[in-house]
Amino acid sequence: ARQDLAAAAVAMIVTVLVSKPHLLAEDQPVDPPAGWTLIPRTLWGLAGVAFLSIFIEGSIGDWGTVYLRSTLHVSAATAATGYAVFSLSMMTGCFVGDYLHMKLGPTNLLRASGVLVACGFGFALLGISYTAAMIGFLVTGFGLSNMIALIFGAAARRNPGGVGAA
């Protein structure tokens, strides 16, 4: 473990030193820090969807392995693959998200993502088998992968006077 951590530390230091000259200069923020404010009514629906998507992502991260272990009675090592499958599908969805955004548009992509999340999460929770749960985690991760970015973009478009606050 010490050798692995030392190698990772060296790799991170080299990465920072190599990438530092290529970073952009920090600009002044477009809007001043908002502080505490009430959520405008126009953003309530988006805030609710954002909360639910982050809640589902967190529940799979925190409880996915417990669910697989206690409900489907798989080994601890096998149960840990549930989060790996979910994370891999989220990563894949992020990589293709811009392409899908251009092809489908933000509204259609958000709708499709919501359908994927509902179907995938529901399928995973049926408790049929380990394979079915993995398919559910895979579909859920792909659906969740772009939802927060889409919601933040929609919030910024609905509240152009305070993009940061939105």
Task: Please explain how this structure is put together.
- This protein starts with a helix and ends in an 8-residue tail after the last helix.
- It is mainly α and 166 residues long.
- The protein contains six helices and no strands.
- Helix 4 runs antiparallel to helix 6.
Outline the fold blueprint.
Elements: H1 2-19, H2 44-70, H3 76-104, H4 106-125, H5 130-144, H6 147-158
Helix pairs in contact: 2-3, 2-5, 2-6, 3-4, 3-5, 4-5, 4-6
- Tally of strands: 0
Roughly how many Å apart are the termini?
A: 43 Å
**Main sheet?**
none
Q: What are the low-pLDDT stretches, counting only 5+ consecutive residues below 50?
A: none
Rg, Cα atoms, Å = 20 Å
Number of helices: 6
Q: What are the secondary-structure elements, in order, as H or E?
A: HHHHHH
Helix content: over 70%
Secondary-structure-based class equals mainly alpha
Report the sheet-strand fraction. Answer: under 5%
The dominant shape is: globular
Mean pLDDT level: 88
List keywords for this structure.
166 residues, mainly alpha, 6 helices, globular
Brief synopsis:
With 166 residues, the chain is mainly α. It has helices spanning 2-19, 44-70, 76-104, 106-125, 130-144, 147-158.
